[in-house]
Structure formats: C-alpha cells, structure tokens
Amino acid sequence: MKLMAGFMLVLAGLWAAAFTPARAELDVVHLKSTIEASVQADYPKLDALYKDIHAHPEVAFQEVRTAAKLAAEMRALGFEVTEKIGKTGLVAIYRNGEGPTIMVRTELDALPMEEKTGLPYSSRDKTNWNGQETFVDHSCGHDIHMASWVGTAKTLVALKDAWRGTLMFIAQPAEEIVSGAKAMLDDGLFTRFKKPDFGFALHDGPFAYGTLNYRTGVGSSISDSLDVVFHGRGGHGASPQRTVDPVMIAARFIVDVQSVISREKDPTEFGVFSVGAIHGGTAHNIIPDQVILRGTIRAFKPEVRAKILAGIERTARAVAAMSGAPEPEIKFTEGAKAVMNDEALVNTAVSALKAAFGDKISSSPPLTASEDFSEFINAGVPAMFFNIGVYEPERVAAAKDGTGPQLASNHSPQFAPVPKPTIETGVLAMTLAVLSAFDKYAK
Ligand SMILES: [Zn+2]
Ligand SMILES: [Zn+2]
Questions:
Q1: What is residue 20's predicted lDDT score, i.e. its pLDDT?
Q2: Ligand 1 being an ion, which residues bring their Cβ within 5 A of it?
C-alpha cells in the first residue's frame, strides 16, 4: 500500500510535466513513458491476475468467480462497485470531478472447449454447458482484456490529478453468446447508472504484439442465426419412391443457397452464410422424416442482411416445394448488430495512439466477426473498438512468408497470447485512448 502511494506521487509528478489541464495538447511521448513505467512496476500483479483467470475460466453467465476477482481489484482501487448487473456483470465507477463519463468495457466469459496449448497455466477446469460436461478455455483472450482493464484502471487512478470526469469500467458477461451487453442494458446499466458520454473496448487477435488496428465507421458484422427443419416422409432406404427424402432437400438447400450470396447480393458488399450444423437420420438404410440445419449469416449493412435473409427463406421453401415436402420450419434469431465506431472519437484517440505507437498502429478493414459491444453503441454511446496483437512479431512474420507455422487464432484450442507485451500494450493503448477523450471533451 505504502509503495503504491509513493509510486502514485512519482507518477503524479511525471504527469504534471506531461499535461497542463485547460486543454493543452497531450504530451503523448512523455505520457507513454509514464504509463509504461506504471505498468512495468505493477506487472507482476497483473500477470498473476491474468494467469489465475486464465486457469479458471467460466462460460457465459457463469462468471461468478471471475467477476468477484475483478470486483475486489476495483474496490481496492477506490472504485464504487455494483455486482450482478445483467446476472454476472459488474459496474465500477470512479468519480474525479467535473468532466465526461467514459466507459471502458471488458468481457468476462470463456468458451466451452478444451485448451491444448500446453502452457503451465492452462485451464483444466470443467463446467456444465447446455446439459453437457465440457472443458472451459479462455481461447478468445477475454482474460487478456480483463488484465488490461484492471491495469488501465490502476494507471488512470494513479494519474487522477491530471484528468477530470468519471470512469465507468464495466465487465460484461456472455459476450460469446452475444447476450451479455443486452442483459446489462436490460438490467438498467444506463438508467441505474449514468449513461456514459463515450465508450471504449479492445479485443486481441493473432497478429504481432505491440501493434494495434482500428476502424472508423463499421467495425464488425451484423449476425443472425438460422434454424431450419426440413420435413419429409421417412421410410426404407431401398424404396425411396415411397418417401420424401429430407436429406436430399437439405443437401440441395446447402448448395443452392450459396447462389443468394454469389448471384443476388452485390458482389462488392460483404455477406456470408455458413451452415455449421446438420442433423438427420440414424442408420444406413432409413430415410429420416426430418433434417435440422443450423447456420450463421453475417453482413455489414442492414439492406444486405435483409436481402440475404429473404433469399435464404425463399430457397428453403423452394427446395421443399420442389420435392413435394411440407413447408419447412424457418427461424432466424437476431444476434449482434454491427459495431459502428464514432469518427470524431476515433480520430481523437488515433492521433494520441499514433504519437505513441508510430507505424505500429494502422487502420484495417472491418471484422467479419460480430461483437455485442454494438449494443452499447446502439443505446447511444459514441464509441471506439480496436484490436491488439498477441504473438511474437518474428513468428507472425514467419507465418506470413511461409517459413514458419500458421499461428492459432481466437477460438482455437492452441490460442496462446504472450501475456506481458500484450497486456502492456492493452494498458498503454487504452489509457491513452481514455486520456485523449478526457482531454478533448473536458468540461
Ligand atoms: Zn470469441
Ligand atoms: Zn472475444
């Protein structure tokens, strides 16, 4: 505790030289070394937190232990913490005078899969997921986000003499099933607490640590899922003339539906439909009476999405009609909306980040993946979502030019971020982004 107080004084002194309130330009170069010193000094604790969370992951809406850990960290920093927002989420508020309220989000959840990285801090934990026992793995790197989130909070509190406003740090459950953001909003995130003026979130990815990418405008896709049941008439495999074969109908659908993507959608617009599951039948010689298909639809624009959904539905009905089968059951379920990055906020943050990261930060095309951080944006919070890399730059270069193995991406059982440089980058980037907004939008 004493050490921390002394450390804060040193930081405050360094900061005074880097920043004069009353809207001076941020001296990012100076700030960068201050923040780096802060993270460096505190890294062993962040490392321990990261490895503990990594070894004990929890799936969507079960993140009880994880949320309690973060709540304790934030309380120790002087945040006012409210738990169980949106089932397992938490909200941590730190008031520091007149100024904007800035939200920083982390996710809490992991994935129902077995880790195969062989790391000493690997997860061997199991849980119950949809009625089945399964391993759990932080293979999307949300543990990296949590450590960066705590590190950013620590750094901003240590530098509190230099900014004015309110920090609203939120830890969101169930991002992987794109439900947690909505659960928090439905539980009064922006009514029981003040709606923030701006929001930030980061996500890691399989590129070089120390590098970042960002987007203005569309950042990720709109997602919908499809469940179709094709009904037929079951019977003996040797007498297909007595049946209506739903396996044939499903097969035709899977192939024909791709013409919605290749012939109906504008080829210059992004849109994807992938069938991820097909279930039907039991034995070699039985034609089943139904086949169930599950798939995902992604697009950036609502009008492209609408066209794809209409095409899928029409094709499903047509292939059933073609075989004289009953009408199929077709169910679309809305997932995430697209993340729309606020241009002014992104420009403000990027000018600070460029001064710190130079050519290590670049603008990149939108992600075809989806992210329910979009819920907060749609609720009226201008925001920025950016990405940080996790692997050794040499290994990334070798994978790219074919001289080294391909690197595991998020959701792979081999996904293994290098903790220290990744978390350090997360803290530096997020702290600078938040400070740039406090500076630009000071009241
Ligand atoms: Zn994920
Ligand atoms: Zn993720």
A1: 45
A2: 140
Cα separation, 130 vs 123, in Å, equals 20
Which ligand sits closest to the CA of 143?
2
- How, if at all, do strands 89-96 and 80-85 pair? antiparallel
Q: Which residue has the tokens 């089968």?
A: 325
Q: Among all ligands shown, which has an atom nearest to the Cα of 145?
A: 2
DSSP labels for 176-201? Answer: TTT-HHHHHHHTTTTTTSPPPSEEEE
Alpha-carbon distances of 233 from 157, 283, 286, 290, rounded to whole Å: 67, 15, 11, 8
Task: Give the pair of three-digit tokens for residue 320.
Answer: 């059933």
Given a cut of 90, whether residue 347 has pLDDT beyond it is: yes
The residues with which 274 forms a beta bridge, in sequence order, are 296
3-state helix/strand/coil string of 99-121: CCEEEEEEECCEECCCCCCCCCC
| Ligand 1 center from residue 162 Cα (angstroms) | 35
Handedness of CA 229, 234, 237, 238 (dihedral sign): negative
Structure tokens of 326? Answer: 């009953």
Taking the C-alpha atoms of residue 108 and residue 274, their distance in angstroms, rounded to an integer, is 27
Say how many Å lie between the CA of residue 32 and the centre of ligand 2.
27
Give the max Cα distance, the chain.
86
pTM: 0.88
Token pair recorded at residue 175: 């991002």
Q: How far is it, in rounded angstroms, from Cα 106 to Cα 294?
A: 29
Provide, rounded to the nearest whole percent, the portion of the chain with pLDDT above 90: 92
**SS3 state of residue 211:** coil
pLDDT in tens, 106-152: 999 999 999 999 999 999 999 999 899 999 999 999 999 999 999 99
Tokens of 93: 């508020």
Distance between CA atoms of residues 33 and 35, nearest Å = 5
For residue 92 the two structure tokens come to 């941590």
Q: Identity (one letter) of the amino acid at 391?
A: Y
Residue 201 Cα to ligand 2 middle (Å): 11
